[in-house]
Amino acid sequence: MKKTILSLAIIAMMASCQSGPEGETAKTAEKQEASTSDGAVYTVDKATSNVMFVGSKPVGTHNGVFSIADGSVTVKRRKYYCR
What we know:
By secondary structure, the protein is α+β, with helices and mostly antiparallel strands. The chain contains one helix and four strands; from the N terminus they run H-E-E-E-E.
């Protein structure tokens, strides 16, 4: 009896997974260049730059490093007003 109920439940789950909902296809536009922003542009020094991170989990932490291939960073200056 238990095997029959289990078999029927498995067959029902498999049958429900066969047909997915119909969706629309994604529409894409032509490639656009990123807009330039006003700010200081700093070019990355590949020889001495890397990204360091600390990952955490319930039982501890671990450190990691990514090397940077190329790139630049734009820093926009903000105006701060005192009240």
